[in-house]
């Protein structure tokens, strides 16, 4: 079983590395304090200001953590303590009419300020939680998710 899990992580990591090399970052960590991490390719690294974010990253804060992120379309995310959020989908190519974002918040406190995606394509941004899906149509939002 352990070998199977390690093999799956290796396959997922190699596929993700190949995809990430073709794409530019979708956002940056602007502020980080306390215990803050980026989970990528089965690895956990410290989230430091200036760290680039790619599709599929999981942003995680510990009991004392706080994290501020700006995405390529100027969406602003703030994560409070004990929060976990995954960037499921992100497309910001206005010239090709490719616009959309899905964030999956599994626990914790998140503040969201809409960027250009929700202004250019209302309804193309979703925030998914374990109990509901929020369709964002250009707004400010604060939510606490308790698993």
Characterise the protein shown here:
18% of the residues lie in helices and 49% in strands. With 147 residues, it is α+β, with helices and mostly antiparallel strands. A hairpin with a 4-residue loop joins strand 10 (125-128) and strand 11 (133-136). It has helices spanning 2-22, 116-120; strands at 27-33, 36-40, 43-46, 52-53, 58-61, 66-71, 76-79, 84-93, 98-113, 125-128, 133-136, 140-145. The radius of gyration is 15 Å and the shape is globular. It has two helices and twelve strands.
Q: How large is the radius of gyration?
A: 15 Å
Instruction: Please provide the count of β strands.
Output: 12
Helix count, DSSP H or I runs of 4 or more residues: 2
Q: Main beta sheet, described?
A: 12 strands, mixed
What separation lies between the terminal Cα atoms? 28 Å
Give unreliable regions as ranges: 14-21
Give the % helix: 10-25%
Strand percentage lies at over 45%
Order of helices and strands: HEEEEEEEEEHEEE
Q: What structural class do the secondary elements suggest?
A: alpha+beta
Oligomerization: single chain
Q: Structurally, how many domains make up the residues?
A: 1
- Shape call: globular
What is the residue-mean pLDDT, rounded to a whole number?
A: 87
């Amino acid at each position: 079983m352990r070998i199977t899990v390690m093999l799956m992580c290796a396959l997922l990591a190699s596929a993700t590395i190949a995809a990430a090399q073709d794409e530019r970052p979708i956002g940056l960590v602007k502020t980080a304090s306390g215990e803050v991490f980026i989970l990528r390719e089965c690895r956990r690294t410290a989230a430091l200001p200036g760290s680039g974010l790619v599709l599929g990253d999981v942003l995680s804060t510990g009991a004392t953590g706080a994290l501020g992120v700006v995405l390529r379309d100027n969406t602003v995310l703030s994560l409070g303590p004990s929060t976990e959020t995954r960037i499921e989908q992100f497309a910001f190519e206005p010239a090709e009419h490719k616009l959309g974002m899905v964030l999956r918040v599994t626990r914790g406190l998140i503040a969201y300020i809409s960027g250009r995606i929700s202004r250019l394509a209302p309804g193309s941004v979703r925030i998914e939680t374990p109990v509901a899906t929020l369709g964002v149509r250009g707004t400010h939002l604060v939510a606490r998710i308790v698993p």
